[in-house]
Design goal:
Elements lengths: L16 E6 L8 E7 L8 H4 L13 H20 L22 E7 L2 E7 L6 E6 L3 H11 L2 H8 L5 H23 L8 E7 L4 E6 L12 E9 L2 E9 L3
Antiparallel strand pairs: 1-2, 2-4, 3-4, 5-9, 6-7, 7-8, 8-9
Helix pairs in contact: 3-5
Organism: Microbulbifer variabilis
Catalytic activity: apo-[aryl-carrier protein] + CoA = holo-[aryl-carrier protein] + adenosine 3',5'-bisphosphate + H(+); apo-[peptidyl-carrier protein] + CoA = holo-[peptidyl-carrier protein] + adenosine 3',5'-bisphosphate + H(+)
GO molecular function: transferase activity
Length: 244
């Protein structure tokens, strides 16, 4: 169960973490937490100061990558503390995905100066993504790589602006990849999943898998997703498989 009596210490940290707080769930039974950070104030010694293990995999990474990684892990550590899990390591797994403690499902996303973590004590597929709203020129350029014609017909009738529904589609499929990668253990394409339903009133979507990805995730399986506007973009979350 989610611990509410002992809240995480949401305070400024060394000028790097400038704000941290829960955000409104997206029809999600767990916790969504965000941290704002200042990349200009990043230093390698912040890992030890913030109680985060410095992984060898990012030793030679650019400052931006290190800052994003640290903010994401700090956000995840705060989220775990809400569940009574203090100072719990979150190593880097395959495809750079986080390795969560047993009986915990989690996902991290970051963009610009924002890191967001979703976490639940239901160890099932979970993926979260945040994307600033895609510029219209970029949306037109990438459209054919993200959605098929059936999706374009569906989403264009949603009543949402083109830039917004393209951002929702891109981000939802990113969330689906994060949710499924620990199971399928391979890359798959944006076009290997298709949005077959969107409910703009309740901010929900349904996706279907277009090909067999592994024995546990096969062609025709359906997954539920949810989305909402946040700051300058869109947050999407795919939590579990839904047989409809």
């Amino acid at each position: 169960m989610l611990h509410t009596k002992q809240e995480a210490p949401l305070n400024y940290k060394f000028g790097f973490i400038t704000d941290a707080s829960p955000i409104k769930p997206l029809n999600f039974s767990g916790l969504v937490l965000e941290c704002q950070f200042d990349q200009d104030n990043y230093q390698d010694d912040l890992f030890s100061k913030l109680g985060i293990q410095f992984p060898s995999e990012i030793t030679h990474a650019y400052k931006k990558r290190k800052a994003e990684f640290l903010a994401g892990r700090y956000c995840a550590h705060l989220a775990l503390s809400y569940f009574g899990l203090m100072n719990t390591p979150i190593p880097i797994g395959p495809n750079r995905s986080p390795l969560w403690p047993a009986d915990i499902a989690g996902s991290i996303t970051h963009a610009d100066n924002l890191a967001i973590c979703a976490i639940n004590n239901k160890p099932q597929a979970l993926g979260i993504d945040y994307e600033p709203t895609i510029a219209i020129n970029t949306a037109n350029e990438i459209k054919s790589h993200i959605i098929n014609r059936a999706e374009e017909a569906l989403l264009s009738k949603s009543g949402l602006p083109f830039r917004q529904w393209m951002t929702i589609a891109f981000s939802t499929k990113e969330s689906l990849f994060k949710a499924l990668y620990p199971t399928v253990k391979q890359y798959f394409d944006f076009l290997d999943a298709e949005i077959v339903h969107i409910d703009c009133k309740n901010h929900k979507l349904v996706l279907t898998i277009k090909c067999d990805l592994c024995t546990a995730v096969s062609k025709g399986q359906l997954f539920s997703g949810t989305y909402r506007s946040h700051r300058e973009g869109i947050i999407t979350l795919v939590e579990h498989q839904e047989f409809l």
